[in-house]
Amino acid sequence: MASHRRPKQPSRTRVTVLTATAAAAVALSSQAAQADPQQTKKDVKSEVDKLYEQAEQATEKYNGVKEDQEKLQKEVEGLQDKVARGQGELNQLRKGLGAVASGQYRSGSIDPSVQLFLSGDPDSYLEKAATLDQLSGKQAEQLKTIADKQRRLAQARSEAASKIEDLTETRKALGDKKDEIKGKLGKAQELLNTLTAKERAALQAKEDRANRSNSRIDLGSDVPASQRGAAALSAAQAKIGSPYVWGATGPSSFDCSGLTSWAYQQAGQSLPRTSQEQANAGTRIQGQDALKPGDLVLFYGDLHHIGLYAGNGQVLHAPKPGAAVRYESINNMPFMFGVRV
Fold first, then answer.
1. Sheet containing 283-285: order of strands
2. How do strand 326-329 and strand 335-340 relate by DSSP bridges?
3. DSSP code of residue 222
4. Which of 326, 174, 325, 182 is nearest to 253 (CA)?
5. Of 305, 320, 326, 340, which is the active-site residue?
6. Contact at 8 Å (CB) between 60 and 304?
């Protein structure tokens, strides 16, 4: 027999909750539909700029490690050459003493002290000073020379082994830092790829305008810091428009410290490779008002960015990936201090 009971009606509370949820969903959908696409582009650009800054931080550390690697490589090569030459000299000395032993053997009376040396370590033999009386003056001198040469050779080998170990660790650190930089730049590109073609074109057009604005920059009439500073600035100005490439030191592309070190090299002044090291390359200038064209200018708390003061509040620098060497306002970045080389 069919049931005639009325179906159970949803409670008032349940209806209210469902209605509110549905309303919220409609509101969120409406907000999403009305979201400002410019805000999305702005957020992506902000994140990309942050990744570029982190990549530049890693680049300056990479530059420092690379410089250490090159220095260690030269030291290792020098020590290995020293070991090779020392071994050759030792072989010649031993050969000379061996000739003495051969002569004694032919005469039927090889000196036991020489025999002992030729079959073992002269250091342990020389500790027995009394036995030196058994040697001629010339033989004793030869034996001491050989023992000293062996000690220095062992020390050089030990030092070379230690440097090779340091070099191995440095190469690994260099590879890790390189991977970090590529990772940051790769992530930045992924974010840029989330934008539409029109949005990417707009960002690129902004960069292009910033690069082209160099022809209209008013540098004022400030007197350069020095003749050498003026020469360095002039060299860097000749590279306006060159692309930023991490780890590059010119002459066709640069990172920030690569540009400043290259520019001063053209002026006859050698600078350290990294921005942090260049911060100690001269007299510090604390205030912006005291800066003169050719001075180095350091930015950010960890000093990971550097440029050349060009005058009238403008800095000439290699800004970031995707940008060219150009002038920018000194106020576009957190100024720390200047350095007069």
1. 283-285, 335-340, 296-299, 305-311, 314-317, 326-329
2. unpaired
3. P
4. 325
5. 305
6. yes
Q: pLDDT digit string (tens) for 174-233?
A: 999 999 999 999 999 999 999 989 988 888 888 888 877 776 788 998 899 899 999 999
Sign of CA dihedral 190, 194, 200, 203: negative
Q: Residue 94: helix, strand or coil by DSSP?
A: helix
- Residue 102 has a CB neighbour count (10 Å cut-off) of 11
Identify the active-site residue in 256, 263, 267, 318. Answer: 256
Question: Which pLDDT belongs to residue 28?
Answer: 36
Comparing CA positions, the residue from 303, 309, 330 lying closest to residue 222 is: 309
What's the Rg (C-alpha) of the chain?
36
Residue 320 and residue 53 in contact, taking contact as beta carbons nearer than 8 Å: yes
- Of the candidates 61, 317, 326, 340, the residue annotated as catalytic is 317
* Residue 304 annotated among the catalytic residues of the structure: no
The answer to whether the predicted template modeling score (pTM) of the entire model surpasses 0.70 is no
* Residue 43: Cβ-neighbour burial (10 angstroms; 0-12, 13-18, 19+): exposed
Residue type, 146: I
**Joined tokens for residue 62:** 């990479």
Question: Is residue 117 a contact partner of residue 125, using CB atoms and an 8 Å limit?
Answer: yes
Paired sense of beta strands 296-299 and 335-340, if any: antiparallel
**4 catalytic per annotation:** no
Residue linked to tokens 């020489």: 114
Q: What does the alpha-carbon distance between residue 309 and residue 159 come to, in Å, rounded to a whole number? A: 44
Any idea what DSSP says for residue 215?
G
The encoded tokens of residue 169 equal: 């660790």
Burial of residue 26, with CB atoms counted within 10 A of its CB: 0-12 exposed, 13-18 middle, 19 or more buried: exposed
